[in-house]
Prior knowledge:
Elements: E1 3-8, E2 12-17, E3 36-39, H1 51-58
Antiparallel strand pairs: 1-2, 1-3
Amino acid sequence: MPLYEFECGNCGVFEALRPIALRDTAPNCPTCEEETQRIFSVPHFNLSSGSAFLKARQTDEPRLEKREKEPTQPSYQSHKRHRPWMVGH
């Protein structure tokens, strides 16, 4: 069931779990039993358990990588054929 926010004129804002079928009918205030109105607010998302939270935590600090040895220079092939632009064909 979704969680909706309602406002009582006397007590203020409160939240109530309501079935979707009853989303347009406002419940009475739980403390003073007065009529209430539904408040339309921004939805709340919990990203702390998802992969977005883990990715954000991993990118806080840069990774340090050690290189065992310097990379070797690429070796160039000599052209043994008449067409040097077709190396390896």
